[in-house]
Each structure stands twice: as structure tokens, then as C-alpha cells.
Task: inverse folding
């Protein structure tokens, strides 16, 4: 996976160096949330956390740009806040998220530079919607609080009776839409939705459909693993195990962000047009 991340960085760098186009640096802030076994809705602001992003972008052509982006944030979910049908399952998790991704973007309209032979000189284009897609690597590390309130990282425990720990890294596939506006000759504002599919089902430490045998898990993985695997018994008179399920192994986890971003051009002469 580290080799894949290195390859993405090399490809993006090669494209930008070869093109010798305008560079700009970008930063952004906005909410981050996750989708998976512990989230009742695919897209929601419920239980979201704040995230940030920073990166470098090269405008390869008037319509295409390549970016290398770094994102950091957190995701969480708690069955107590996840709708009435999940309250009795009583699972929860938190995780930090660190992602590095190479992204190719397509701008519908050219706001890079005016054409003096075009009507755009009279009526310049300052705003454009865009779409993007890419590939990256994401690091996560799920943890929760036990009954005593102690923070416990879940991957080393093997709460689903894993014979070896699952990886804390996964390939991610960012994709989304946005709209950007040329605020000045050197400053661009944008708002975007970035949806990441991943290849992991363990961002939340939950995957298998059936609960592992608690007595056997106690013997093979210890008391803490057994206690945090099945938590429905923490609720009095709760028989969730007999009619519910732990997770869905066919549903991969992922996350998404809604970001407000600002970009600053590094070129001495402005390359996108803004009338004075």
C-alpha cells in the first residue's frame, strides 16, 4: 500500500512538471462523516466532526488540473444516537482519519485565463462547477470507551475473533463535485463534496454478520475483547443478540467531507482571469 501511495505521488508530480502550468496551494475546512455498519444513513451531518485539507494543484490545461491532497479529520458513530432500531446493539467507535490522495479534476468552464480574441474578454467567466476523482491511501485506528470509561483501541483485541489483526491502512477512492469562484487574480474560493469509497470494512471495527461465540472469544482473545465484541448486555433486559446482527461483511466503510476551500496562485503572473 505504501508503494501505491508513492506511485500516486510520482504520477502527479510527473504530470505537473511536464505540463509546466500554473501552481497553487489550497487549504480547506469542513465537516467529515463516515458511512458503514454503525451509521443508519449514507449521507448525514449527524455525529459529524470537523476536518481539514491542504494540498498543491497544477492546472494542466484550461479544463484539467492534477492535485496532491492531504486530509485529516475524525469519524465516530454511536448506536445510542443511530436510530431506535440500533440502540440495543449498543456499539460505538471513534477514529482519526489521515488521507493522502492524487486527484484529477475537470472544470466545466475555463476560468484560468481570458482570451483577448474571445467574447470572454467582455464577459469573463469567473465561476465554474467541477468534478473530480482519484486514488489515495487512508489511515484509521478505531477505538471506543469501555464500561469504566477507559479509552480502548479495538484492532489489537480481535473483537470478531480474527486470527490476525486487520490492516489500519486502506486504498481510498475520492470522487465528488464542487463549484469554484475567482475572487481575484490570485485567489480562488470553492465549495465541494468529496466522497471516499475504501476497500476496508473495519474502519468501525465491525464487519461480520454473526457475533462470535463470547465464551470462546474469552478464552482465545481475553476478557476485554469479549466484553467489547458484544455490548448489548450492558443494557438491562436486552436480548438483541437473538434477533439482531453485528454487521454486514458485504458493505465496505468509507467517509466524506463537505469543504470550503481557498486557493492561492504561486505564479508571478495570474493565470486565471479576473477583471479589474
Result:
Amino acid at each position: 500500500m505504501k508503494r501505491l501511495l508513492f506511485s500516486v505521488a510520482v504520477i502527479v508530480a510527473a504530470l505537473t512538471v511536464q505540463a509546466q502550468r500554473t501552481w497553487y496551494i489550497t487549504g480547506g475546512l469542513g465537516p467529515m462523516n463516515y458511512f458503514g455498519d454503525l451509521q443508519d444513513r449514507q449521507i448525514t451531518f449527524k455525529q459529524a466532526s470537523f476536518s481539514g485539507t491542504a494540498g498543491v494543484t497544477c492546472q494542466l490545461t484550461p479544463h484539467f488540473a492534477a492535485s496532491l491532497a492531504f486530509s485529516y479529520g475524525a469519524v465516530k458513530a454511536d448506536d445510542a444516537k443511530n436510530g431506535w432500531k440500533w440502540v440495543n446493539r449498543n456499539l460505538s467507535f471513534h477514529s482519526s482519519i489521515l488521507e493522502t490522495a492524487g486527484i484529477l479534476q475537470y472544470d466545466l468552464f475555463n476560468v484560468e485565463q481570458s482570451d483577448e480574441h474571445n467574447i470572454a474578454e467582455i464577459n469573463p467567466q469567473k465561476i465554474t462547477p467541477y468534478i473530480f476523482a482519484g486514488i489515495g491511501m487512508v489511515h484509521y485506528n478505531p477505538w471506543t470507551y469501555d464500561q469504566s470509561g477507559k479509552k480502548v483501541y479495538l484492532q489489537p483485541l480481535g473483537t470478531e475473533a480474527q486470527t490476525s489483526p486487520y490492516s489500519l491502512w486502506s486504498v481510498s477512492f475520492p470522487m465528488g463535485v464542487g463549484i469554484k469562484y475567482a475572487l481575484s487574480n490570485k485567489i480562488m474560493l470553492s465549495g465541494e463534496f468529496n466522497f471516499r469509497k475504501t476497500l476496508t470494512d473495519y474502519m468501525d471495527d465491525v464487519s461480520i454478520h454473526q457475533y462470535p461465540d463470547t465464551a470462546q472469544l474469552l478464552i482465545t482473545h481475553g476478557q476485554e475483547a469479549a466484553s467489547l465484541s458484544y455490548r448489548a448486555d450492558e443494557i438491562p433486559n436486552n436480548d438483541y443478540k437473538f434477533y439482531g446482527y453485528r454487521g454486514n461483511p458485504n458493505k465496505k466503510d468509507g467517509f466524506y467531507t463537505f469543504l470550503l476551500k481557498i486557493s492561492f496562485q504561486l505564479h508571478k503572473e495570474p493565470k486565471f482571469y479576473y477583471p479589474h
